[in-house]
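#help-structures
NK: newbie question, is this the right format to request a structure? protein is SDR family oxidoreductase
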Amino acid sequence: MRLEGKIALVTGAASGIGRQTAITFAREGAQVFLCDINEEGLQQVKAEIEAAGGRATALKLNVTDEEDWKNAARVVRESCGKLNVFFNNAGILIVKPIEELSLDEWNREMAINSTGPFLGIKYLAPLLVASGNGSIINTSSDAATFGFVNHAAYGASKAAIAMLSQVAAAEYRNKNVRSNSIHPACCATNMLLRDDEDIRKNPGYFTPMGRILEPQDIANLVLFLASDESANITGAKFAIDGGETGFSIGMPLETK
């Protein structure tokens, strides 16, 4: 098992990428703290992990609430004394043109997608240092790499977490704590899934490889970054987008 004996904490664990990654962590031997504002969803994930023989603790957490973060750190410290893996994943998506985006919407996106990850690192870093072998994985986005129409708040918030990730890598370089960011394209999660459309069949959501990302695709990358297999990787940005940000498949230049 690739995470045998490790303690992990996952935010946004009640659904989507967080849920699938938490299940993957547990399957690979980690004891997982499941954090989300959705308590019912947390209990469902916890039950699924335990039914498969894994170990999980459900912990209600509003990532914008500093006291919730202090409490999460306290719970982990009192029960385990350390933390090996922090998947800093919770986020929301607001899609609106700049002129239609309210200040409240902008602030909410920033609070959840940028301030939350900052607070998580601030309060969990001492536990990661205490483990002697810590890994922070921050969920950014392809929208942090180039501009998408109607994604001003989302793109800005995800660009912020990408830089936060690199700064954390620099600050904890001598404390055996690594920090990396992942940059997914559209993924088939509750954030995008709709009752009136099967987005898995809509080419508008496809990567250049011809399909949409699934949560397990991303969980596999996060597992690698959480494991000792990536022991010398820090401060890096990992695109997981089927080549979207790596190359163009536009019309070829005319030849004379």
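mod (FA): yep, format's fine, and the tokens are attached above. The mean pLDDT is 91.
NK: thank you!
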